[in-house]
Design goal:
With 574 residues, this protein is mainly beta. The protein is built from 1 helix and 38 strands. The strands form 9 sheets. Strands 2-9-8-4-6 form a 5-stranded mixed beta sheet, with no helix packed on it.
Length: 574
């Protein structure tokens, strides 16, 4: 459905262009991002490639576009269309960034294509691209220098030439700081606010409608116990005071010192915002799955007399670790219940479990001879739920992948009876999982198999089998990467996929850091130093979550551990 809507919107836009003088033809395309399901999700970064006739952004053939033209030179057979992939280009100052272009070879066209910048502004550094006869994609490298200063905007026009054929396309461009540096337009680079005197965390981060930012976690003060914390920020940083007057919501399910911890803040179709995590009804009770719902203005979204709060006892002591929103607006929640991996489905508008999912709204995944828990989950295009978790037996913790059918039943066609165990030396614990458009499953985990905490990145085929083509082989027969970034403990916390297929990993060593990978899993040498960028987010800063904005920047969140504990959010050029 989402693909159809995107394609329709692109077509309507294209149709409107046909009424503009000088534009006689247009082709529009739109690609859905399979890494996210169900509006409103944290982000939709892929967008639509710029397409159109020669002389605009994108695709055209000779004779179609009102502004199109052929070049002069060798006559070649056939023709080609030309597309600039990003809808906007960030040009890093005093650095180089890539711009991806694609061509479609038509009518037997097999000549090389040279792609360059037309009428480059003063200060633009360009390394042009050559697409050889077997190539359909290529990348130019662009950078800014001199008087082409940070914040400058301009129209970037690229020309693609092959013999007597020339096609052009244009997209907006802006000069930014180098990739990995803080965005000073976001509240000066970093925004922080006091959360609690004794402890705090921001475990979830996502971009919502109108570019606003949602984050969730917990705080603790001197009275004991913890409370749900949720906040909505403005696009340029700063708490949104139109939401609950302070930009913050939260609370407890009891007047007690029992633990309370929110793990997500998600916006529903009608604007309702839902905090989901684990909490307790009071002393002597178990920890349960908890929900707090708020209207778009921050006042409680009540059902009956529940004051916008609901607890769901799954029969044990529940700890929530991750939440996702499905296309039919259900919250899928995973974690551990009495050391059993669980997934439950919540109808957030009704503040009830969906009893049609699994058995009475829940599914437990037992693992023979050990305990298990869920840590991250993602929903695929067929509404199946893929959970990355752990299983432990005799003190050895390994990675466990589970796939559930939309009904909540374990999928027998995935792995071994719906489960895949990735057994490795030492202790492993997943921290993130996502899907690629190809259906591959990419996961990030913490491992101590080399003697200290390291990043472990693995990719699995859609059926759960290993994909040894991903990464550099440092993770052994599983494929992927085993990354010792600093020589000490490197703790991963989050994983995102960019619209061009690259990945960014987030974590902590002696300070917060980001790592960027190419789509094939190899380190991206154009990012930071040897693909690693260290961040300074303040005193005793700890990174805990990450998201991608619609324009491709990174949002990172965590805490500053001085007294008092503060929530910290920054935006990073990418």
């Amino acid at each position: 459905m989402k693909q159809r809507l995107l394609a329709l919107s692109a077509t309507l836009f294209c149709g409107a262009l046909l009424f503009v003088p000088g534009i006689t033809s247009c082709k529009a395309t739109a690609d859905a991002d399979p890494d996210r399901l169900g509006p409103p999700a944290p982000r939709d970064p892929d967008g639509s490639p710029f397409t159109g006739t020669d002389g605009q952004g994108g695709t055209g053939r000779d004779g179609e576009g009102g502004a199109g033209s052929h070049g002069q030179g060798i006559v070649v057979e056939g023709d080609f269309s030309f597309t600039i992939v990003p809808v906007r280009v960030d040009v890093p100052y005093d650095d180089l960034g890539d711009v991806e272009v694609t061509i479609e070879r038509l009518d037997g066209f097999d000549a090389p294509v040279e792609v360059d910048v037309l009428d480059a502004p003063t200060g633009l550094v360009v390394t042009r691209a050559t697409l050889e006869p077997d190539d359909t994609t290529g990348k130019l490298s662009l950078g800014a220098s001199g008087t082409l200063s940070i914040g400058t905007t301009f129209t970037l026009t690229l020309t693609a030439k092959a013999g007597d054929l020339t096609h052009t396309g244009s997209v907006p461009a802006v000069v930014t700081s180098k990739a990995g540096s803080l965005d000073p337009s976001f509240h000066g680079g970093i925004f922080s606010w006091t959360l609690g005197t004794d402890a705090a965390a921001l475990y979830d981060l996502r971009e919502a409608r109108q570019g606003k930012i949602l984050t969730a976690g917990f705080s603790a003060d001197g009275l004991g116990g913890t409370r749900f914390e949720g906040a909505r920020l403005l696009p340029d940083g700063g708490l949104d005071t139109t939401f609950a007057t302070t930009g913050r919501v939260g609370g407890r399910f009891c007047s007690c010192t029992r633990p309370h911890e929110a793990r997500s803040m998600i916006q529903l179709f009608d604007g309702t915002l839902v905090l989901t995590g684990s909490g307790s009804a009071g002393p002597g009770t178990t920890s349960d799955v908890g929900l707090m719902a708020f209207k778009n203005d921050g006042t409680p979204h009540t059902v009956g007399n529940d004051e916008g709060k609901a607890l769901f006892d799954l029969g044990g002591d529940e700890t929530v670790r991750a939440v996702a929103l499905s296309a039919d607006e259900h919250l899928l929640v995973t974690g551990a219940s009495n050391e059993r991996l669980f997934v439950t489905a919540i109808r957030p508008m009704a503040h009830k479990l969906d009893n049609a999912f699994g058995t009475n709204g829940r599914t437990f995944v037992d693992h023979t001879g050990g305990t298990a828990g869920g840590e991250a989950l993602v929903i695929d295009g067929s509404s199946r739920v893929i959970v990355a978790g752990w299983t432990e037996a005799n003190g050895d913790r390994d990675i466990l992948l589970v796939r559930l059918l939309p009904s909540g039943q374990i999928d027998p066609f995935f792995g071994n009876a719906g489960r895949v165990t990735i057994a490795r030396t030492g202790q492993q614990q997943p921290v993130g999982v996502l899907l690629q458009p190809s259906g591959h499953i990419v996961l990030l985990a913490r491992t101590d198999e080399a003697g200290s905490a390291d990043f472990l990145v693995l990719r699995r085929n859609a059926n759960g089998t290993p994909d040894p083509t991903f990464g550099d082989g440092s993770a052994g027969d599983d494929g992927g990467l085993l990354l010792d970034l600093t020589g000490g403990d490197d703790d991963p916390v989050a994983l995102v996929r960019l619209s061009d297929g690259r990945f960014v990993l987030a974590g902590n060593a002696t300070d917060p850091l980001l790592v960027r990978l190419q789509p094939n899993g190899l380190l991206d040498p154009t990012f930071g130093t040897n693909a690693v960028q260290h961040l300074d987010l303040g005193v005793d800063d700890v990174l805990q979550s990450m998201a991608v904005t619609t324009d491709g920047k990174l949002l990172v969140a965590g805490r500053s551990e001085g007294y008092p504990f503060k929530g910290v959010i920054a935006r990073v050029f990418n």
